[in-house]
Design brief:
The protein has one helix and two strands. By secondary structure, the chain is mainly alpha-helical. The protein is rod-shaped and about 160 Å long.
Length: 137
């Protein structure tokens, strides 16, 4: 990594050198050592598989925790949304009931005023008839 490069930059891959120490059976034959490379490769492969298995289990636990947290958050958001919708619905119902009650009250007042206007009209008609019968000579 160059100096000044950010550690937060996304990379497609990375290389990490991990030393593997294994006990290898060595047999001394005259002036050279004999090392079984197949056995060494098998032991290293086994260690890598064990590490990968541990990493897989850890990753599965992390994913389970994250999925659980995400579902809990989604459930909380849905419940909040449903609560807001219920509040809006309750407000609309209260407004409707209030307007219905006001409509009945307004209707009753209009009926009273209609009755009063009909009485005034009747009085006006009788006054007009009275005036029509009175004519100066």
């Amino acid at each position: 990594m160059k100096v000044g490069d950010s550690l937060c930059k996304p990379v497609d891959f990375y290389i990490e050198e991990v030393p593997y120490e294994v006990d290898v059976k060595i047999t001394e034959e005259n002036s050279f050592y004999e090392v079984d490379l197949h056995e060494t490769a098998r032991v290293i492969k086994e260690k890598i598989n064990n590490q990968a298995s541990g990493s897989r289990e850890l990753l599965q636990r992390v994913i389970q925790v994250q999925v659980s947290a995400d579902f809990n958050m989604a459930e909380k958001q849905i419940n909040q949304y449903m609560k807001r919708c219920q509040e809006v619905l309750d407000t609309l119902l209260r407004d409707r009931e209030t307007k219905e009650a006001e409509a009945d009250h307004i209707r009753a007042k209009l009926e009273d005023q209609k009755t009063a206007l009909n009485e005034y009209l009747s009085d006006l008609t009788s006054i007009r008839e009275s005036l029509n019968t009175w004519k100066p000579m």
